[in-house]
From TrEMBL:
Annotated PANTHER family: PHOSPHOENOLPYRUVATE CARBOXYLASE, PHOSPHOENOLPYRUVATE CARBOXYLASE FAMILY PROTEIN
Organism encoding this protein: Paraburkholderia caledonica
CDD domains: ICL_PEPM (cd00377)
UniProt lineage: Bacteria, Pseudomonadati, Pseudomonadota, Betaproteobacteria, Burkholderiales
InterPro entries: ICL/PEPM, Isocitrate_lyase_ph_CS, Pyrv/PenolPyrv_kinase-like_dom, Pyrv_kinase-like_dom_sf
Protein name: 2-methylisocitrate lyase-like PEP mutase family enzyme
Length: 290
């Protein structure tokens, strides 16, 4: 309830909510410590952490386990990817119940045919609009009183066109969704049309190298979007940095300490070592930064 209320209050404000993508406790803590108000649990990131591509191979159990890790690691709200709801409308009811137990503030359910694919890849297939709307209605009905928010995502832009995508999310909002997510608009003009024509708060996904232009966040806000998610920001950055560090050791035979590398003690402190080691001193900041 507390996380949901925080997210609702942020939606009511005029500020754009920027939510970088997290998949584990480290990435979630980095996002909170950097001052972002929300973390977005990226399904692609959770899949990658389990050794899979984003092809719908991760189960409900694995996704909700990741969600619990995120919510216990941070105090900011978490918006969690729930793929297609892991089945039909009946399965969606259980999906909502399990995610609600994890403590997330919102879940995202999409209209791809299972198994789904990353929204910025080719070859996607959709369920019928009526089935998508039934899933959203089932999700809205399954949540508890004052329960988490529902993000309705459509991948129709790449399959049946922008007009169908907008119609789908508007019908989903009528069925009980709280936030509309049209995946992968291919121009600033298309993004503007989504924000203008959708009858509710809109979310925009900014993916490095994806189909949507890299629109500055100031412009995203001016277009009328309420949330911008950055699911690949940390994942792609960390993989690039890791590749460089590993290649340096292989090529030089030495462990080069990067200028921005954290001392091991500071690393553990940022993961909560002080709160565990010195419970009475956590409020005073004893022995280092929290």
């Amino acid at each position: 309830m507390e996380a949901v209320n925080k997210l609702r209050k942020q939606l009511e404000s005029k500020e754009l909510i920027v939510a970088p993508g997290a998949w584990d406790g480290i990435s979630a803590r980095l996002i909170e410590q950097a001052g972002f108000p929300v973390a977005y649990m990226t399904g692609a990131g959770v899949a990658a952490a389990n050794g899979y591509p984003d092809f719908g191979l991760v189960t409900l159990t694995e996704m909700t386990a990741a969600a619990r890790t995120l919510t216990r690691s941070v105090s900011i709200p978490v918006i969690a990817d729930a793929d297609t709801g892991f089945g039909n409308a009946l399965n969606v009811r259980r999906t909502v119940q399990e995610y609600e137990k994890s403590g997330v503030a919102a879940i995202q359910i999409e209209d791809q045919l299972f198994p789904k694919r990353c929204g910025h890849l080719e070859g996607k297939e959709l369920v019928q609009t009526t089935e998508f709307v039934e899933k959203i209605a089932a999700a809205a009905a399954a949540r508890g009183e004052g329960g988490m928010l529902i993000v309705a995502r459509t991948d129709a832009r790449a399959v049946t066109g922008l007009d169908d995508a907008i119609e789908r999310v508007n019908r989903a909002l009528d069925a009980g969704a709280d936030i509309a997510f049209v995946e992968a608009p291919q121009s600033v003009e298309e993004a503007a049309a989504i924000a203008r024509r959708v009858n509710g708060p809109c979310l925009l996904n900014l993916v490095p190298g994806g189909k949507t232009p890299n629109i500055p966040l100031k412009d995203v806000a001016e277009l009328g979007f309420r949330i911008a998610i950055l699911p690949g920001l940390l994942l792609t950055s960390m993989m690039g940095a890791a590749d460089l560090a590993l290649a340096t050791v292989r090529n030089t035979g030495r462990v080069e300490v990067r200028p921005d590398a954290l001392p091991i003690r500071d690393l553990f402190n940022r993961l909560g070592a002080l709160e565990w080691q010195y419970p009475a001193a956590s409020a005073t900041g004893r022995d280092g930064a929290r």
